[in-house]
Amino acid sequence: MTEPLGIRAESLSMTYRVPVRESGLGAAFRSLWRRQIRTVTALDAVDLQVRPGESVGLIGPNGAGKTTLMKILAGILKPTGGTARVLDQDPFQRRPEQLRRIALVRGSQPLGGAPELTVMDSLRYQGLVFDVPPARFTQNLDELVELLGIGRLLDRQVRALSLGERMRAGLAMALVYRPQVLFLDEPTIGLDVSAAVRTREFLRKYVVHTGATMILTSHYMTDVAELCPRVVLINHGTKLYDGDLTGLTDRVRHDKLVEVRLADGAALPDGLEGVEKNGRYELSVARDQVAPTIGRLLAGATVLDLSVREAPLDVLMDEIYRREPR
Ligand SMILES: Nc1ncnc2c1ncn2[C@@H]1O[C@H](COP(=O)(O)OP(=O)(O)OP(=O)(O)O)[C@@H](O)[C@H]1O
């Protein structure tokens, strides 16, 4: 059955036409009357369905096509092939009532508008552009000020904000009209650890509180792991995986890491192998061998400390990306 709302992309393709020019003055003159064009396929027949209220992490290496897909879904780019429907409308039609229901926030440029304005004036302007009734505006703003902790920023000029402050103000700008669909392109890029944690907490609360649908791209796997129960991996413009993160990482790693500290610098019991790091051993153990391995460690040595963990997500993603030809 057709899902009436949410997001639906069918066979979405995007080809950019890029002028090609050799370096040098002569080549610059020649290109005036003989332009060479190369085509770049950024998306190649991508299908995607996102249910209302779902949070999806769009992942893939640099140049995979993630931003292109987001821009198409947000109505900024017209695809060269296929169809997109967001909240049952073609996003590229850019109908005002549609624009009022979606938002795109780019971590690299979280705030548009006039840099001389204060954050409060920018928010008021946003409220007018998006036709938010005054009482609703005040209510939304109060919530956002509380959730994002931006009270102290309201009377500051936009141009005087730090990157983290810009991101928080940018989120407030994008969310003050309560969009139902949120496209976030690397929302924590360049943020310090605390700012990234606070941004993630905010986004989690926002989607729970409002029921918004969210598509997020990030190279920080913590963002994706914490916010998106579902991930979509694309590379070279093609969708390669759609499911939960564990299902994806299980494809490359079938082990867990057992880390152990033994008394008096003792060696590992016979038959166990591991890498020594700072007085601890790290053992890569097949998932079904974790319990027997721990049993052998406890039986064969005096264990001071022991932990079992998954391989770091970034390492797993590196392995996944490396499997794909660049
Ligand atoms: N305006 C443009 N003109 C020409 N080519 C473009 C344009 N925008 C993107 N591309 C190309 O399209 C491909 C996909 O780019 P896109 O920005 O969608 O990737 P991405 O997955 O968001 O990458 P990143 O993680 O580096 O931001 C790349 O090869 C890129 O060089």
UniProtKB/TrEMBL annotation:
PROSITE patterns: ABC_TRANSPORTER_1, ABC_TRANSPORTER_2. It is a peripheral membrane protein. It is found in: Cell membrane. Residues 27-261 form the ABC transporter domain. SUPFAM superfamilies: P-loop containing nucleoside triphosphate hydrolases (SSF52540). One of its GO terms (biological process) is response to antibiotic. InterPro entries: AAA+_ATPase, ABC_transporter-like_ATP-bd, ABC_transporter-like_CS, ABC_transporter_ATP-binding, P-loop_NTPase. GO terms for cellular component: plasma membrane. Pfam families: ABC_tran (PF00005). Keywords: Antibiotic resistance, ATP-binding, Nucleotide-binding, Transport. This is ABC transporter. It comes from Actinoplanes cyaneus.
